[in-house]
Amino acid sequence: MEINNRLKSLPPYIFIELDKKKKAAIAAGRDILNLGIGDPDRPTPSRIIDNFRESVGKPSNHQYPIGRGSAVFKQAVMKWMKKRFDVGITDSETMCLIGAKDGITHLPLAFLNPGDIVLIPDPGYPGYTSGTLIAGGVPLAMPLEQKNNFLPDLANIPAEVYEQTKIMWLNYPNNPTSAMAGLEFYEEALSYAEKYDFIIAQDAPYSEIYFNTPPISMLQMQGAKDHVIEFYSMSKTYNMTGWRVGFAVGGEKLINGLGLVKENMDSGTFTAIQETAAWTLLNCDEEAGQIRALYKSRAQAFTKGLRAMGYEVLEPQATLYLWVKVPGNLKSMDFCTKVLDEADIVVTPGIGFGLSGDRYFRIALTVEEELISKALDRLKKVKL
Ligand SMILES: Cc1ncc(COP(=O)(O)O)c(C=O)c1O
User: Fold this and answer.
1) Distance 45 CA to ligand 1 centre (A)
2) Which of 88, 144, 248, 354 is most deeply buried (CB count within 10 A of its CB)?
3) Out of 3.40.640.10, 2.40.40.10, 3.40.50.1970, 2.30.30.40, which CATH number does the structure's domain 47-283 have?
4) Is the dihedral of CA 247, 249, 254, 255 positive or negative?
């Protein structure tokens, strides 16, 4: 039986060859350092685990989760949004998600009709494109260029494109470039969304992993709720990727659309996980601060070492990643294959995030500092 045309239109998995090489190297007993995956290496902080032990023991948490999130969870989100961004959110302006990815990939199903355009940052998280294609939409790349501080050039997008646009994805702090966006850019983006009546979906799972200034929320802007939905996640802020919990906040119509899709697709996040996530949002600023400081220290150590070797590293501002220029004229895949072959290190080729990423590679800061030193030593072996 053939899969349908929408699934066939998904981009091929371009890491196949690199993955095969990595697996073969591991099978051959080589000591491979994996700097490829953006999955925190440290466990969830112990106070969160202790809290969950209590939540999981309560029989009232064992049945189907209710609606778009438990009252306890939604109230915690409302308080967190107020405290963190001074943004007031009502009960109908938020919903619990099975991680941000759940919201990202389902939003297009709520709002796209066949042929609608979705503007997608390039380089960008692959879920924006796959969600669009599965919903029958047309993904169009918005290049993020170094000369524009990795912000899309919104004035350069033709009016005919904007007229057919239903969703524009933004993602700040940005994976993979680690760039941040400010109020001026968000105001410009919102003015286009108002003029051409499209949704801005701002994906913010790295909102708490910043190194200098805390990121702002687009919902701080007057009138933003008519057009903006934001996605937040517990995954990176609290080392909770495996728990699968995050949330969406935005205008009621946008939340309702996403809610309608999800109500027909899944039955929500385990209530005990929601209860612990709610407690975490309200009680674990200290843990979040420690995790933020850890990535900052790793980012600084790695950047210093790479720059000393002549690599051009974009100044890390946030996230778990370094975005580094591929040396010489190599393409990103060829360079990353060389790094695996000659230094036993896995890094991600920028092409995996879109065509505009092909002059770069991404390093995940998900190893301890002694392994960062080891990685830097090994990188010296790569013949450029
Ligand atoms: C930009 C971006 N959005 C969304 C996600 C998914 O986050 P979650 O674990 O909350 O589903 C990731 C995960 O790496 C990401 O990098």
Assistant:
1) 19
2) 248
3) 3.40.640.10
4) positive
Is the CB of residue 350 below 6 angstroms from any atom belonging to ligand 1?
no
pLDDT of 163: 98
Q: Is 274 exposed, middle or buried (0-12, 13-18, 19+ CB in 10 A)?
A: buried
Q: How confident is the model at residue 181 (pLDDT cuts 50, 70, 90)?
A: very high
The 3-state DSSP class for residue 182 equals: coil
Q: Could you list the beta-strand ranges (E) of 31-97.
A: 33-34, 94-97
- 94 CB within 6 A, ligand 1: no
101 CA: nearest ligand 1 atom: 11
- Output the pTM of the full model: 0.97
Q: How far is the CA of 311 from the centre of ligand 1 (A)?
A: 27
pLDDT > 90? residue 315: yes
At residue 384, does pLDDT exceed 90?
A: no
**CB atoms near residue 296 (< 10 Å):** 17
Dist. CA 1 → ligand 1 center (Å): 32
